[in-house]
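Pasting as-is:
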Amino acid sequence: MRRFLLLFSVFFCLLIRTSMGQDRIIVPDTVLINGDTLVMLGDSILIEEPEKEIFWSTGGNYNLNIQQVTLSNWAAGGASSFALNSGVSLFANYKKDKKVWDTQLNINLGFNRQNDRSFETRKTNDNFIFSSNYGRELSEKYFLSTQLDARTQLLTGYKYSRPAGSESEIRTKISDLLSPGYIQSSTGLNYRRTFEDKSSLSLIVSPFTGRFTIVLNDSLSNAGAFGVTPGENVRAEAGMSFSTRIADFILMENVTWRANLNLFSNYERFGNMVVNFNSDIRLKVNKYISTRIETVLIYDEEVFIKQDDGSSKQAVQFQNLINFGVSLDF
């Protein structure tokens, strides 16, 4: 009997010791204070912060393209030249609840230098475009929007010509900073859609649009350039507008397309459209190198283009650039 009690006592002690060696299961206490969750574990307090919403998205792109040709004693003929084209594109987009606010800035400058001409360095590209759109959601894809669009150039523009019988060229100033400048403000219905591949489409129809043509240069203003009354600096128009914007549309692998079209018609001459069209096709080689095909088309019946024979007439303005060089996204 004693042996049995002794064995039972040893077995009971081992059982108690084994059970004490097991991991303890601790259920933490949870406390809510002003919407924050506090998890209390022993003597420690773990604070679980709610995930912060991101309302702003910002970024941009910088591109630089350089071309150089150097000739010396070249039997085939030609001239040494240097060309540079650079541009920056910035965006800042905001979205919270039923409010959206999209802002874009595009600046492009280009030059060409050729040694065998009277004015060696000449401008080839000069654009400044700022656009800001604020909208309130009416439904999933429709917004009531107000948009501001401002366009101008940064440097003086010249028309180069060679008078009959002259061996050298002359240049005539035809534009300058804010000469012209265009400011367009519109309010209307905005259809917006973002696709699964992150490309987007925006259409805005505005029956309430104000357009202001600015000519600050006195010589151009006195000549009545760009449709202003001679001697005046601003020409105001009221009308309706239609604008569309396509962003990051994938044409094929590593090839994307961006474009925007803006149409404006003055109520006094309804049906006569002012057209501004910009297209940018980007062929991405790698993270730092790309080829860009940029196209700009403008038509404004109030703008008369000076021709080589000295006359001026209404005409479609067309610009096309094919650039290969450095492209940095940020």
